[in-house]
Amino acid sequence: MLDDRDYMREPEEGEPGWGFRPRFRWSLTVGFLIAYFVVFLTELLLGSFFPRYGGFMNHYFALSNDGLAHGYVWQLITYQFMHAGWLHLFFNSWAILTFGQELEYMLGKKRFAALMLSSGMVGGVLQSLVGFFWPHYFGGGVVGASACAFGLVATYAMIFPRRDLTMLIFFVIPVTVQARVLLYVSVALAALGVGLTFFMSTGNVAHAAHLGGMAMGWVYVRWILKNPALIGMEEITEPRRAAPAPREEEKDPEEIAGEVDAILDKISARGIKSLTARERAVLEAARKKMTRP
Asked: HEC states along the chain?
């Protein structure tokens, strides 16, 4: 039942796969960060040595209402990979690296990429909308992956609301808060930033884009990931809460065999990361029962 599956057997000496063979798993999170760095370096080089082409990048690839009015809809994607300075790049990259790796592992690369890009797009749309109605206050061009980063923060807080996170205020003072508290504070600060823009200069910060990114993270969890057929999980809101293992001795052996075979088929089709906590418990109980002397 378990050992007759090729992918569940340990390779014997001389067989392919025998010995220590580390598997390289490329990270899409790191891939995004590399892309940000390469694009930013390109911006710097063009701005320093070819100013004319530096302006070309800002005109065609940074997000602006003027560009969207001319049909440059690709700006909703390209602006996410551009940054205004080293600190801007560093803080966005740090946030994406902090929350992105675990979310990528749990969601898979395709869904993680969809979350990243859709958060940036929704953030860009909201920033453009407020810029359309109040161009005097929000009419400037926008660059940066901050909407993507805040989308990850919202997604993480929705999935792990009570997870404790330790942050360094000013990189010195450690503060531990729950993920949901971090989300509440982020929403409050972004909304406050939007409001203050009408009364005073709050710097070149796209607060509306931050709100849009967090809104997309909320929608992604509530309306997309809640469907078990999309992600292969029964409870997306509590992915780390292990379900109690069923008492296998009370089940019919044929029923156990059929359940385990279905789980193994799921591993073969979607990978072991697609299993729910209960399915992992059933598989582990069956393995222990088979190896029992």
From this structure: CCCCCHHHCCCCCCCCCCCCCCCCCCCHHHHHHHHHHHHHHHHHHHHHHCHHHHHHHHHHHCECHHHHHCCCCCHHHHHHHCCCCHHHHHHHHHHHHHHHHHHHHHHCHHHHHHHHHHHHHHHHHHHHHHHHHCHHHHCCCECCCHHHHHHHHHHHHHHCCCCEEEEEECCCEEEEEEHHHHHHHHHHHHHHHHHHHCCCCCCCCCHHHHHHHHHHHHHHHHHHHCCHHHHCCCCCCCCCCCCCCCCHHHCCHHHHHHHHHHHHHHHHHHCHHHCCHHHHHHHHHHHHHHHCC
Higher pLDDT, 90 or 138: 90
Model pTM?
0.70
Mean predicted confidence (pLDDT) in 138-164: 91
Per-residue pLDDT, 250: 53
**What CATH class does 28-231 carry?**
mainly alpha
Q: Check residue 117 and give its pLDDT.
A: 97
pLDDT of residue 207: 92
pLDDT at position 282, please? 76
Domain ranges in the chain?
28-231, 242-293
Instruction: State the pLDDT at residue 260.
Output: 73
